[in-house]
Each structure stands twice: as C-alpha cells, then as structure tokens.
Amino acid sequence: MYSPKDYTSNEELWKIFLSGDSHALDLLVKNHYNLLYQYGRKFTYDEGLVKDCIQDLFLFLWQKRAAIRETPSVRHYLMKSLRRRLQRALSPQKHTVSSDMGFLVFKPDSEYPAEARMILEEQHAELAAKIKKGLAALSQRQQEIIYLRFYLNADAAQIADIMQLSRQSVYNLLHEAIDRLRVIGESCFKPAGVLGSLITVLLANL
User: Fold this and answer.
1) Does the pLDDT value for residue 140 go beyond 50?
2) Rounded Cα distance, 72 and 85, in Å
3) Options 2.40.160, 1.10.1740, 3.90.550, 1.20.144; which CATH number does 4-90 get?
4) Residue 118 CB: number of other CB atoms within 10 A?
5) What class is the 114-204 domain?
6) Is the pTM of this model over 0.70?
7) Contact 115, 201 (CB under 8 A)
8) Is the pLDDT of residue 133 over 80?
9) What is the mean pLDDT of residues 151-157?
C-alpha cells in the first residue's frame, strides 16, 4: 500500500494519487500550484480566472482519477491540462478550443537561468528594458517556447505535447526565436555585449 510519505518524485506521488489517496493530491497541488499560476498568468492578466482554472483542474483530476493514466512528467501533464482549460475559458466560443492563445510579453525577473541572472546584475537598468523589448519582438508562440525551454527546462518533445505542435515546428520556432534575439543583440550592443552573452547562455542550453 502506497503512502505519500514514501514517494521520491512527483511521478511516484502521482501513482499514489491515482490509487485514491487524497493527501497525495494535496501534495501535488502544493508542489505545482506556483508553477501553474505563473504559467497561467502568461496568458491572461485575470488572476481569478487562472486560480479558478487551476482549482477546476485538480477537482477534475480527483473526480476522474480512475480513468487517468500514469505519466512520465507530472509537471508537463499539468501544464498541458491547464493550458487547454485556459484556451477554453479565453475562447469566444466557450465550448471550443482555439488553435492559439496570446502569450503575454515577458518581464525580466527571477525566472532567468542562474548564468543569465549574473549577466543581468551587471547592467540591470539598461539591460532589463532592452531584453524585454527583444523578447516582446518575438511572436507569441516563440515567447512561450522560450519560456518552456529555457526557464522550465522542457525538451522539444515535452514542448510539442504541451503546445500541441509537431516536434519539427518546435525546433523551427525555437531556432527562429534565437536567431531573432541574436539580431536584436547585435543591433543593441557590440558583439561582446551583455545581450549577446545572454543569447550565448541560451544557445548553450540547446
């Protein structure tokens, strides 16, 4: 018999939840709520809507647990599920799912990788505005892919699953986004400038 005290990963905890343990579900909520909230707020400024969708998602999971399967990544399963709920909630036709959603403009914050944060600290005031401008110049899907890949460390297959795209589309959008950031970096700074260094950090994570 599983016990929530015995789990070593969220995937193990997911198995315990599927067996009908409500405490395991509580721990899954605790472990993922902030991540889901931050991700949801990338699609809408309506905090209440994001919180409602997260609550509805976990309620649905509990009610339908008997029909839900194990997953290799609880985090990405929950992100994909929340994304679809937000799609429905934000769609003009409430019972349909739109093919795309607006991804809100990035704001430079603590979500940058550690190496990037060190670069940001050197010239924060000037750099923050230029990086924000550079990321805002990307398409909404490119912004979301950058967020998922570099800030949440999702791989191409996981991004494709979350966004419901082909893996080749993910590769294409990701490389187009990086190429565009490189151009912006070269126009804002000298080749060895700070934004150029930030792009190098991103490329090193591919």
Assistant:
1) yes
2) 21
3) 1.10.1740
4) 12
5) mainly alpha
6) no
7) yes
8) no
9) 85
Mean pLDDT of 79-106: 66
DSSP secondary structure of 37-101: HHHHTTT-S-HHHHHHHHHHHHHHHHHTGGGPPP-S-HHHHHHHHHHHHHHHHHSSSTTS--S--
Q: How far apart are CA 109 and CA 128, in angstroms?
A: 9
pLDDT of residue 27: 94
Instruction: State how far Cα 118 lies from the chain centre.
Output: 22
103 neighbors 43 (Cβ within 8 angstroms):
yes
Q: Give the contacts of 87 (CB within 8 A, at least 6 positions apart).
A: 97, 98, 101
pLDDT over 60 at 24, yes or no:
yes
Contact (Cβ atoms closer than 8 angstroms) between residue 85 and residue 43: no
Q: Is there a contact between 45 and 26 (Cβ–Cβ < 8 Å)?
A: no
Q: Which residue has the higher pLDDT, 112 or 159?
A: 159
